[in-house]
Structure formats: C-alpha cells, structure tokens
Amino acid sequence: MSAGEGAAVTARTARTPRLDLEPLAVAHADEMTGVLADPALHTFIGGAPLTAPELRARYERLTAGSPDPATVWCNWVVRLRTENRLAGTVQATLTDDGRVAEVAWVIGTEWQGRGIAREAAEALVALLLEHGAHTIVAHVHPDHTASAAVARAAGLTPTDRVEDGEIRWERRVC
Q1: What is the mean pLDDT of the chain?
Q2: Are 164 and 102 in contact, with CB atoms under 8 Å apart?
Q3: Cα gap 58→5, rounded to integer Å
Q4: Is the model's pTM score more than 0.90?
Q5: Cβ distance 133 to 99 under 8 Å?
Q6: 161: which of 13, 85, 130, 168 fits an S-S bond (Cβ 3.0–4.6 Å)?
C-alpha cells in the first residue's frame, strides 16, 4: 500500500452490524468533546480531556495528514447507528508502505461495556488487512484488561516487548 492508497483507506467509511466508522472531520470535534470528556478515559493513556477548541485544533492537524510522507494517518469516528451518536474513535498510523499499521481505539465511558470497542477494532483491522497491511500493532497498558480483550478479539496477541510501559500486541499475516 502506497501513501496514496493509505489516503483511500482513511477516506472510506466502514460499516459493521451496529457501527459506522466515518472518516474523521474537524466538524466532529464539538460532539466528540462530550464523548471524550470523562477524565477516567485518560487513566491509562495520560493527559486530560480537551476543550472543544483544543479538539478542533487536534482534528485539523490529524486531517491535514502526517508531515512525514512515509507515514499515513488514518482516523475515524465511531458512530452508533441506532442512536445516531458518536461513541469514540479508532485510528491507524501506516508505515512501511502501508504494510505496518499501529492501531488504537477510544470509546466514551457512556458506551463502554457494550462491545463497541471490540466491533470497531475488528472492523478497523479487517479494513487494514484488506488494504495490504501485514502487521497490525497495538500498545496496551498491562492493567487495562478491557483494552487487552479488545486487542485479542481483533486477532492481536501480546508480545514480550514493553514500550513506554505498555505491552506491544501484534497480528502478522503473510
């Protein structure tokens, strides 16, 4: 997958039985500010909730794309169709001509425990594999059992590597 193909991945909406993974847009920032407002979401990743202007600025940077031409940023919001509400985000950073994808997910507290993160992560991994990714990587805090369960459901397995205090999970396909 070349950088051009990476842009095609990030521009595509993916659908699951309950969710739409919509390409991230700056216009999502206002609604996402509420979704991501719970400080508990930052227990394992650090930081604090962003204000609407801060989140808009972040989304502007993300949608502009990576300054490194060898890296493609792919970001989606997770929409729960039955409620027509945003519930979180998924993202992938593509390197090595799209063969390696580092993925992450965040689901707002209100929607946790409903399998939304699992469903979104599975869809994200399937989309990346469909577009030529060979290695999918996630970093999960060792105490974040819910995120570890999501990684496992998406077909990733933990490695013995720890990076910045997080366990590296991988899925490799040939």
Answers
A1: 93
A2: no
A3: 23
A4: yes
A5: yes
A6: 168
